[in-house]
Amino acid sequence: MIKDKKSEKSFRKARISLPVLLLGATLLFPGCGNASDSAYASGMSALKSEDYNTAITNFQSAVDSEGREAEGYRGLGIAYLNLGDYENAVDAFSKSLAAIKYPRQNKSFREDVLFYQAQAYAEEQQYDNAMTIYNELIKSEEHAGQAFLLRGKLYALENKFGQAGQDFQKALELDNSYEIYLEIYDIYVQNNRQADGAAFLKDALNQKPSESDDYYQLGRICYELKDYGKAEKYLKKAIEKNIPGAVMLLGRVYSDTGDYDSAEDLYQSCIDNDTSVSLGYNGLALIAIMKGNYDDALQKIQAGLDTDEAEYKEELLYNEIIAYEKKLDFKTAASKMESFLKSYPTNQKAVQENLFLQSRVMETEATASENVTSSSGSSSSPSDVSDTQSEASGSTQSETTDTANTDQSNASYNSAGEGQSSGDDSGSYQGTVDADNDGYDDNTGVYYGTAYGTDTSAYGNYDSAGYYDGSTGY
Q1: What percent of the chain has pLDDT over 90?
Q2: What are the C-alpha distances in Å from 180 to residues 60, 144, 146, 172, 380?
Q3: Are 167 and 149 in contact (CB under 8 A)?
Q4: Mean pLDDT throughout 336-350?
Q5: Residue 356, SS3?
Q6: Is residue 63 within 8 Å of 72, Cβ to Cβ?
Q7: Which of 132, 227, 281, 367 could form a disulfide with 222 if both were Cys (CB 3.0 to 4.6 A apart)?
Q8: CA–CA separation, 21 vs 17, rounded Å?
Q9: Exposed/middle/buried for 215, CB within 10 Å: 0-12, 13-18, 19+?
Q10: Which residue did the predictor score with more confidence, 160 or 244?
């Protein structure tokens, strides 16, 4: 199948959360009990810790030895999905569906698996198959709203914005939470229709907050609309109520307005108060990178990794790579990226960044080889002194120019191959830009994290257990 540029954006570009899905979904009449020492339980534990290969081994044992075909194949599908093996994911979900012995009694479980399978089809860009599933799920009494939202997303990817808008309105009729408004906005942003998405966000502001989390969501909305004053007000209330993600987003508000002192004070408070130490160090590292203080950033990153907190480990490791890139130490950056991708193979930003790093390493090695060859073939006979001196002068000038070009090149790349400015080392960098809402700053390449630092359970009721690729999961 030929993939056009439109479809290349993929379903992953605007990650949609699936709150209807439960990680621990079980059949009403499973093949055997839920013993905590079972292979199935071990598989679920491996999923939560993002050890997907171990999860696959355990879920296969659950299928082969414990008689838990429906649940086991579902677990296999989720693991394959997170590894980016969509073909095997689709196959596993098909086997799960076929193994459900009591479809009526297990309606919610069946719909859960269908949502996952539709996601796998969409990731493979088999949009017709995904659409067929959503057409069935919009008839669901329990999950119709989410089905309308995801079907609308497919329509948007196919440039059918009229039909997408209709589905979005139907989704909001069933669930008009702030999260749904933000998901719709994100879909429009990914399709370069930010103004259409902003219209939905403005409608959302007409609602009054009723729950603690609403203040965080309102902060997000105001941030997207660039109303930083109101965003700060709402986010401070969210922080008072200990809402995840509020600290990192408030840090971005401060960074966008050039108020680095407030951002640093905010992140430092996370460390001093022991509320989220890894978040604090990641935030301080981001500010250091923006100021061009790369060695300081690396120290902050190492301090964050030394905490052994898993919450921001991926962000810290990714930003470590960015810091080495900014230092022009491409060899170290490439080596660390190799290790990073072993742990986070579905991080598409990292996959793209790795291509850049490999090309830079090859260029550096080729230049070094040419210099060695040139040096070994040179002559220093007296008759050539004047020529040699002239060449040396020209070489020095050329090397200076090459270094300047390297610096300029390093400041004008991003992982997608598009031009960008990485700011200057004098600390004059102002603000962050995340035009595609993927959680990465377009200026520096630094990684803030899913939904500005919180993963709201994109695939069930547990953090970071769904896809994690830097896109905003909401």
Answers
A1: 61
A2: 36, 13, 9, 7, 73
A3: yes
A4: 89
A5: helix
A6: yes
A7: 227
A8: 9
A9: buried
A10: 160
